[in-house]
């Protein structure tokens, strides 16, 4: 067998291309063994204490979005060895609401708990249910706590409900400052047979706003899977989600992204936005600052 002969793998050619550029195919094969289709008891228990879930997918026009779903712990739970249910689903005003009203929509999800710096990802296909959504899993896996900022969750919901979404085609000065100060965002990408939602974190300023229509960030060393960057090699459309942990306001960006490779093997992702959606108080939860 040659070093690059294919064995059974959870990766498509896009991820393989990036892994080879980074010289981490062997490491990726090792990490890839942790990807399965089943939801283990420890993962089911983790889901049932989560107050939020990020979901990524494409709308009917192909634009990609990352959306925030929230609820009392238990609103996300395993309902079978390969299935989770999400109470209520996404709000009717969310960019993915129409897509998720149909059976079989490819979605990626990530449950990230700042309290414990743990995260779990589940990718699959969604269908509407009388209570919200059901998602049948294709891939289930966890990641290390690297780049997750620790926060505490305060008791009680905020008194105000979600405000009316405000849409635009470029970042306002206030939004630019918000993005530049962020230490966390979520990234949604898609490929021909599925979708993925992932997390990016770093010190404030790790996301650089280069214009009202563009931003960039360095791709830090991670788990060597390169699921997101692999997807972007096949479909450049992407969605970003920023959350104001104090006010619950969300900022969703949709557009396209490309990865620039430098001679020193560093990578920079450059995102060009086409639409913004800001929703005041989208989350009812109040989180502390970094701990």
From TrEMBL:
This is Pyridoxamine 5'-phosphate oxidase family protein. It comes from the Bacteria. It holds the Pfam family PNPOx_N. The lineage of its organism: Bacteria, Bacillati, Actinomycetota, Actinomycetes, Kitasatosporales. Residues 171-264 form the Pyridoxamine 5'-phosphate oxidase N-terminal domain. Residues 1-24 are annotated as: Disordered. It comes from Streptomyces kanamyceticus. InterPro entries: Pyridox_Oxase_N (IPR011576), Split_barrel_FMN-bd (IPR012349).
């Amino acid at each position: 067998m040659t070093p690059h002969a294919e064995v059974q793998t959870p990766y498509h050619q896009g991820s393989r291309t990036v892994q080879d550029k980074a010289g981490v195919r062997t490491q990726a094969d090792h990490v890839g063994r942790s990807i399965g289709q089943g939801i283990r008891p420890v993962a089911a228990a983790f889901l049932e204490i989560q107050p939020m879930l990020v979901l990524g997918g494409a709308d009917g026009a192909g634009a990609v979005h990352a959306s925030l779903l929230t609820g009392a712990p238990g609103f996300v739970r395993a309902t079978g060895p390969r299935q989770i249910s999400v109470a209520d689903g996404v709000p009717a005003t969310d960019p993915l609401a129409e897509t998720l009203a149909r059976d079989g929509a490819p979605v990626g999800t990530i449950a990230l708990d700042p309290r414990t710096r743990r995260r779990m990802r589940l990718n699959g296909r969604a269908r509407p249910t009388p209570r919200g959504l059901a998602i049948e899993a294709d891939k289930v896996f966890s990641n290390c706590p690297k780049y997750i900022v620790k926060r505490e969750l305060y008791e009680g919901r905020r008194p105000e409900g979600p405000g009316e979404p405000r849409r635009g085609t470029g970042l306002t000065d206030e939004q630019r400052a918000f993005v530049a100060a962020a230490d966390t965002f979520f990234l949604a990408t898609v490929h021909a047979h599925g979708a993925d939602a992932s997390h990016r974190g770093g010190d404030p300023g790790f996301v650089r706003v280069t214009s009202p229509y563009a931003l960039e960030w360095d791709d830090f060393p991670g788990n060597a899977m390169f699921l997101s960057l692999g997807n972007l090699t096949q479909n450049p459309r992407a969605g970003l989600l920023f959350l104001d942990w104090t006010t619950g306001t969300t900022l969703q960006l949709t557009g396209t992204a490309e990865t620039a490779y430098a001679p020193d093997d560093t990578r920079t992702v450059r995102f060009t936005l086409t639409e913004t959606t800001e929703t005041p108080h989208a989350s009812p939860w109040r989180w502390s600052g970094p701990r």
